[in-house]
Design goal:
four-stranded mixed sheet, 185 residues, alpha+beta
Length: 185
């Protein structure tokens, strides 16, 4: 399985590099604040999610128009939930990240060990791309958060925090770690 995840990391780096470049064109002059690699609870798929301050504002306004009186109070949740984000490789035709996702879903072993190996591979892919300068060419790294996100899983917050600590300058990580502190106040 180690060889599989080494190859997967290479594939993911190439895919994210290509899809990120295409999504940045769609974002235009908006201020990018987050990039995440998103998976499901068994790490059987992956997608690239990105969000901007402007798209976050549009999301909150949408929920207000739909009659949600508490939309403003959920902004911290919307900010860090890729399911609520405006940009993903799903917007692209073709998406290179889909290729990596197919590779991931083709494996036979979905054990907790391989789920952990996925999180390490996804973190490593983002780290390599960050070291190349891919993200800093588009956004101030002191304002951009990179992380791995696992949908609908009890481990989600731990995975997000672990990856964010590995991938970001300390001030960015500390802001991210405190992301839900104001919810419910």
């Amino acid at each position: 399985m180690k060889d599989f995840f080494a190859k997967f990391t290479e594939e993911l780096v190439q895919a994210v590099r290509a899809d990120f470049a295409e999504l940045v064109k769609r974002i235009g002059n908006e201020k990018l604040y987050a990039v995440a690699l998103v998976t499901d609870s068994d790490a059987g798929t992956v997608y690239l999610g990105m969000n901007t301050e402007e798209s976050l504002g549009r999301r909150v306004e949408y929920y207000k128009r739909e009659g949600d009186p508490d939309a403003e109070s959920y902004i911290s949740s919307y900010r860090w939930m890729p399911d609520e984000w405006a940009y993903s490789d799903g917007d692209l035709e073709p998406s290179q990240t889909v290729r990596a996702s197919r590779m991931l879903s083709s494996r036979d072993d979905y054990s907790e060990e391989t789920q952990a190996a996925f999180c390490e591979a996804a973190s490593e892919a983002l780290k390599q791309l960050d070291q190349e300068g891919l993200f800093s060419n588009v956004a101030d790294r002191d304002e951009l958060t990179l992380f791995v996100y696992m949908n609908d899983d009890d481990r989600s917050e731990d995975i997000e925090d672990y990856s964010a600590k590995l991938l970001n300058p300390e001030p960015v990580y500390l802001r991210f770690k405190a992301r839900y502190d104001s919810i419910g106040e």
